[in-house]
Every structure is written in C-alpha cells, then in structure tokens.
Amino acid sequence: MINSLSDMQINEIIQFLEEIAPLAYQESYDNAGLLVGRADQPLQGMLITLDITEAVVQEAIQKHCNLIVSHHPIIFHPLKRITGATDAERAIMLAIQSNIVLYAAHTNLDQVAEGVNAMIAERLGLLHPQVLAPLRGKLKKLVTFVPHAHAAALRTALFHAGAGTIGQYDECSYNIEGMGTFRAREGAHPYVGAVGEQHQEPETRIETIFPAHRETAVVEALLRHHPYEEVAYDIYPLDNLHPRVGPGMVGELPEPLPVDVFLKHVQKALQTGCIRYTRYTGMIQRVAVCGGAGVFLLPEAIKAGAQAFVTADVKYHEFFRAEGRLLLLDAGHYETEQFTIDLLERLIRKKFPNFAPLKSEICTNPINYFS
Description:
The protein starts with 9 loop residues before the first helix and ends in a 12-residue tail after the last strand. It has 3 domains: 10-106, NIF3 (NGG1p interacting factor 3)-like (Udp-n-acetylmuramoylalanyl-d-glutamate--2,6- Diaminopimelate Ligase, Chain: A, domain 1); 116-133 and 247-336, Udp-n-acetylmuramoylalanyl-d-glutamate--2,6- Diaminopimelate Ligase, Chain: A, domain 1 (3-Layer(aba) Sandwich); 135-242, 2-Layer Sandwich (Alpha-Beta Plaits). By secondary structure, it is α/β, with parallel strands linked by helices. Helix 2 packs parallel to helix 3 (87-97) and helix 6 (148-160) packs antiparallel against helix 7. The chain has 12 helices and 17 strands.
C-alpha cells in the first residue's frame, strides 16, 4: 500500500476536506483551514492527528509526510511571537523548516452530519442518528427563467454546482411554465427576438435550494449554461433549518439499557478511563452526543427527548442543569473526539482509493487518570 501519489497535489486533499466540511460552517471563534505552508505543491504523504505537537511534526518528518491534517487548530489564539518558547511554537517552526503543511478541520467538521458526532454515534451503535441542533441561515433559494428547451440542461448544471439537495434527496427543483417578455435595446445581442421589438418567449421558471456557501458556484453555473445574454434570476435567503448542518447528534440504541450497563457501554466504546455523570433513574435508549465541550446543547438534548447526553468538559455547576431529566455524561474531550482520526482516514481513502494516509501513533491527550 502506497502512502503518496507523485501526481497528487496537497490542495486536492484540502479541496476535498472543504467539500465535506466547508469552512463557512466553522464557529466565529474558530481558526480552521490552512494554517501553515503552501498547498500548491506535490503531496508526498499525509499524517492525520487530533492535535499537532512538536512530536507529531517529528513523526511526520520520519514518515516522509509533508501534510498534517488535525482536528484541533495549532494556531487558535493569536500568536504575537514565535520563538520556540512553547510546544506549539516549536511545532510550527519545525513544520516551516521542514516544508510541512498544517491544516485543521475543527468546528466545521463538528457541524456536518457526516462529521465528528456521527463517528461518536457510530461508536455507540446509535440507530438513525440526526443532527441535534440544525442551524438556520445556511440555505438560500435560486429562482430563474429559461426557455423550455434549455430547462433540463440548466437544471443539471445547477445540481452539479451544489443546488437541489434537501435532506436525503437531491436534484430537487420546482418548475412552472409561463411566458416571459423582453425588448432588446440598441447594442444588445439577443438569443431570441429582434432589437427594438418586444418578444414573448415560453419559459420555465426554475426554483431550487442550495447551501449558502455554494452561492458563487451556483451563480457561475447559471450564467455559464443559460442561453440568454442577460440572465434574470433572484436569490432569497431562507430561514429554514438545515437538517444536515449543526452541532451534536441524537439517535437510539437498539434496546433500552439500565444506567450502569449504559455507562460500561460508553466506557468501552469511547475507550475512556473516567466518566463523570449525574444521577438518573430511568432506562437509556435515546442518546444525544456532542464531541468536546458540548454542554451548551443540554437544552436541545432534553427537547429531543434524550435519556442520556454524552459530551465533555462539563463544569461542576453545569451538572446541576440536568435536574434528573436525563443522564449527563462527561466522557472526556480527547475521548469523545479521538475517532475523528479514523473518520478522516476513512473519508480520504474512499475519495482517493489509491492513496493511503497515515494515522499518527502519538497519543496527544494531555490528561492522565489515576485510579
């Protein structure tokens, strides 16, 4: 099995990652994306890790990898100087000296239905997982008008550009036949009709939805494949929830479990040495999850009818907020996100079947447990 392709560029990997987890989906405080280095160079090898440390960069050098993809951004807070005083500074310096590109897929990978939380749901064996808190403001609608004969080809182009997906359905549109009118003025080069004369053209009104971050691509496809010199179209922002974008997930276990059995199940599935949890007297079947610090989703988990909420970084007073309405578990930040490495490897292998990214063998968890 090879771990590099001589004709493959680093930006091909990055472009694919940003198709799966668009940077537009990251939180405002985040710093996902290309952090160090240039992507317009041949890919020699790729190392996947949860965190980038100096030891991980040294591992990449030893394994001849010039791209490191992490979940957590090594540059999160602004850096005023890079002198080698901290592990992060030394890692960045070593990466630059060794021409290693550093890239992070963080909260943008948390927010997509195929991302971090889907991996947790899979590890726990949850059935029919859905996004726990779908986001608003991530969808737009395009309306345009095209001669009947060109409608099918234009729809295909718009779908290829990213329009027309609603949940588990794609190539979605609504079409109405009507009559368009226009008069070409001097200097125009009309596709149909004559300059100076009003023309009536049987047209199809096409309506289709698209993710807001795909607007440029969708409009470019519209203008490129529409026959008219001047294309009439409208774009509407939508308040609809995006069912496949948002933090957390919720699903169901195949059968209800007592609390103690469920805790053992979580401990084994997430390979954690410690679980902090609240008291709960019921059975557990419907489970909400959020990798990393997700207690802000506790109201959403309760609203979704979850009997348990698996997350991390829960503070002392935040445990009180469960109020016995569900089992609130803190399974550890690293523990809930560690399988992101497996997720990224799986996605990249599926997209590039002849390329084998490497998973870091270094455990970057800074926390140890004493028992």
